[in-house]
């Protein structure tokens, strides 16, 4: 039998909910919200306590705006009830557990019934399809497998779409490169900074990242900018799309971006009701287009229904485009708990990324260190020069960066332009902020 390399285009229909109108989605949301609130109230003691204390009852949910009457859920609630206190089903109905380590405090533990896993895979598959991944493609999954939702979440999504999954997990960068060269995947799933790490390592090994088989990257788990998208698309000659999610709400696949519009991730609003609240006054729910903190309520989750969960992610809601019934989220500019307050000026790492990548000679590899030598906070930006940038030019680029940060952010900082390869690389979420203020 002769083998043919011709690829057959497999059918790839959309889920019916993906094409619902805004009105249809909102009416579905209302009934699902009523059910979820009653379900959580009946099954999770913490929700009952909170609602009773706030004087609200699930029957108060009459129209969508009534959601604002219900109390928020915080990461702290999951920690207080560690490990399984917020689960709404008996343990034998929990098909899987994940946990997020977080940087401080106890892990938060999340659970899924078989139905939850099925919905998660379905939404993940929607995201991959929207990003241009096709059934029959080979997909290299470099999100970390294990308690982190990235690896297994993206894996199930790729399987559901009908791709051939390569479950590489994160790390072992040399091996990642070998697998990419030998298995010739069409798409890669990983964090944006890890794709950068892989690209750098390829270049150092004399391999041109533009010549790999990769066509698409679906990137998430950490904030990234349009400038970083451009950097990665040029570096690999690929399309790079966003995928968003968080373990407390589900995992990767809460929202995903279209490769045709590249204008932010569509939230699957048949399963989640998003809200934006004022980051400084949580009692104010903001309208579409206004920047604030993203809050999610699950509409179908069984093991861990989550009501008005404060993500601390800062963004805004925009009308749907590629999937008109589902709203998009703008880029996440940062997390409220990642915000550096420097002598009264608010600063996010993504602002530095945006500014640095517009300056020739500077790479996307940087770290921010905050110290307080006297009574004043000081910010130092350590950033690698690009390989082709000489030390003289690097000095000028550093001065330019300081000047641009002063103009756009409003604070002065010390810049240290360092040699390529001298800063730590990530194989997952990259830590950019080193706050030494309380460590001195
Ligand atoms: O990071 C889930 C995930 C895995 C998403 C793989 C996408 C791809 P957690 O570890 O619980 O879950 O971290 C959730 O990561 O609240 C955001 O602050 C950040 N985050 C996730 N996706 C994005 C994104 C996973 N596309 C936290 N853009 C969230 C910006 C993101 N930040």
TrEMBL record:
It comes from the Bacteria. Its EC number is 6.2.1.30. Residues 88-296 form the AMP-dependent synthetase/ligase domain. The keyword Ligase applies. Keywords: Ligase, Nucleotide-binding. Residues 1-20 are annotated as: Disordered. GO terms for biological process: phenylacetate catabolic process. It catalyses: 2-phenylacetate + ATP + CoA = phenylacetyl-CoA + AMP + diphosphate. Pathway: Aromatic compound metabolism; phenylacetate degradation. Residues 344-437 form the AMP-dependent ligase C-terminal domain. Pfam families: AMP-binding, AMP-binding_C_2. One of its GO terms (molecular function) is nucleotide binding. Monomer. Catalyzes the activation of phenylacetic acid (PA) to phenylacetyl-CoA (PA-CoA). Belongs to the phenylacetyl-CoA ligase family. PANTHER family: PHENYLACETATE-COENZYME A LIGASE. This is Phenylacetate-coenzyme A ligase. It comes from Paeniglutamicibacter gangotriensis Lz1y. The lineage of its organism: Bacteria, Bacillati, Actinomycetota, Actinomycetes, Micrococcales.
